[in-house]
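EI: anyone free to look at a 256-residue chain?
SC: sure, send it
EI:
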Amino acid sequence: MDAPDPGFTQLFYELFGSLPRQGPGNRACAARALAMCRELQPSPQVLDIGCGAGGQTLQLAELTEATIVAVDAYAPGIARLEQSITRLGLAHRVRALVGDMANLDLPPASFDLVWSEGALYNLGLTKALRVCRGLLRSGGYLAFTDAVWRKRKQDIPPEVRAAFESDYPTMGQVEDLLALVAGAGFDLCGHFTLPDEAWWDDFYAPMERRLGELRALHADDPDAMAVIDELAREPEMHRRHADCYAYEFIVARRGA
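SC: here you go
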């Protein structure tokens, strides 16, 4: 595989690192998923895997009395979350760590809830589910989002299929996702599809505003403008083809 172009990588992080969230989701969806964790204790130990800059981490801190460990491999995102933790006076409850989800230096069976929004696919979902199960206490909950097809692959426009398959070739439909969860030793508590506002309010709308700012900053750099045009295809594709794919929020419980 070719190494990423440095110019693309720089602008990618300049864009995504500035956003309230690094993927689809919102506070209402987090609250809905938490409500499915019906026997979660009042002050749970929570792990947020692939937290990015911590948009959902801070929502979890607001919605619960949890003690939270938030982990992401991107150090600038963790630095931004640490600033938010300090500003909001959450240092006694929220700890942000730079770490690789494949090699988390955390004690097994030590969390009541493992949370991950749009990140587990990076590890491969089968392996990621195994990692999450090992970190959960018996009866602990797993809540995560993952991309799914809303139509059969053969009915997806080629441009949409190519955009996802370059990053997530094993992406399936909801029933495929639920089968993986069951096969990993989890009991399903519930699931729902993220509404369209969960894509736009805190993700694509801020992204398009930031893309406009980047166009102004790099107007005299044709190479940068080409990268910005490429990055802008993502929200535009969702505007035209949201009926083809979705994010599903899954809440499951570890069996004995």
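EI: The chain has one domain: 23-200+244-254.
SC: 👍
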